[in-house]
Design a protein that fits this description.
By secondary structure, this protein is of the alpha/beta class. The chain has two domains: 235 residues, Rossmann fold, CATH 3.40.50.300; 63 residues, Histone, subunit A (Orthogonal Bundle), CATH 1.10.20.140. The protein contains 14 helices and six strands. It has a six-stranded parallel β-sheet with strand order 3-2-4-1-5-6, with helices on both faces. Helix 2 links the parallel strand 2 and strand 3. Helix 5 crosses helix 8. The two termini are 15 Å apart. 34% of the residues are buried.
């Protein structure tokens, strides 16, 4: 079967993906599929920089607000939900525009996910207990011993990925990097146009600091208080994410609000650096400044024309 075309638009947090994507979607007459791992959660709007109501009215968005904060969600489920949306848009003569900063979601959508590594709820529970007793640094150190390749790639604070990698090793005796190498993400489901937005580091970091302050002015702290009142406790994965975890710590009296905000800004800058590193790992992505909209349109137009010769839009 010929592969459907899609457009993947990625980039670090704060670079300006939302405004750029809205204009690109308008000009292409299409709709946006979210690829941000935090924007899938309901009730988490300000801290995830979700598109506003007005922006959603201007361009239809998909895969926003699809699960509650206490419901499981991962890259595999994301791909399962996104594939039918891509096909439905194509049937209506539209090219799906997939937008976000979660590169893994984009990779899983196009390349599939490693199916060989097993999982075990019991083993995961044992690892969570070890985490409570000894801390995340101990688990990360253990991962670097048993799987040096992933241990160097996974951030020491990435609780979920550290536990998953250790779970696989304990179950199989082989590191998760081995299973990923076997899979090689060899599937290629779509003909994709891959674009990354980037800015000068100083410019990006200034935008990030301003954006965090704007979130606070918009009521980010009230949003976190509301989530806690609804029963979404600090142990949940989304509540441990960037911004939310710092404000939860402030609300529990562990740090001042100024310190929490400063930490959010600092950790967001660090996160943006990791996002850029991830996208650099895929040579198919082409890089543009957000003000180079015409260049992006020229690229998209040429690529879609070429793809249409092989698989015309209905």
């Amino acid at each position: 079967m010929p592969r459907l075309p899609i457009i993947l638009l990625g980039g670090p947090t704060g670079v300006g993906k939302t405004a750029f994507a809205l204009e690109l979607a308008r000009r292409l007459g299409t709709e946006i599929i979210n690829a941000d791992s935090m924007q899938v959660y309901r009730f988490m709007d300000i801290g995830t920089a979700k598109p506003t109501r007005e922006e959603r009215l201007a361009v239809t968005h998909h895969l926003l607000d699809v699960v509650n904060p206490d419901e499981p969600f991962d890259a595999s489920l994301y791909a399962d939900m996104a594939h039918p949306l891509v096909a439905a848009l194509h049937q209506r003569g539209k090219i799906a525009l997939v937008v976000g900063g979660t590169g893994l979601y984009m990779k899983t959508l196009n390349r599939g996910i490693c199916p060989g590594a097993p999982s075990s709820a019991a083993e995961r529970l044992r690892l969570l207990r070890r985490l409570e007793d000894h801390g995340l640094k101990t688990l990360h150190d253990e991962l670097r011993e048993v799987d040096p390749l992933l241990g160097d790639k996974i951030h020491p604070n990435d609780r979920q990925r550290i536990i998953r990698a250790l779970e696989v090793f304990r179950l199989t005796g082989r590191p998760l990097s081995y299973w990923q190498e076997q899979h090689r993400f060899g599937e290629c489901r779509y003909e994709s146009v891959k674009i990354v937005l980037s800015r000068d580091r100083k410019e990006l970091y200034q935008r990030i600091d301003r954006r965090v302050q704007k979130m606070m002015d918009q009521g980010f702290l009230n949003e976190v208080e509301g989530l806690l009142r609804m029963g979404y406790g600090p142990g949940l994965k989304p509540m441990q994410s960037l911004g939310y975890s710092q404000l939860v710590r402030h609300l529990s009296g562990q740090c001042s609000l100024d310190d929490a905000v400063a930490e959010i800004q600092r950790e967001t800058r660090r996160y943006s650096k990791r996002q850029l590193t991830w996208f650099r790992g895929d040579p198919e992505f082409q890089w543009f400044h957000p003000e180079e909209g015409e260049k992006v349109m020229d690229l998209v137009g040429l690529r879609l024309k070429s793809l249409a010769d092989h698989h015309p839009i209905p």
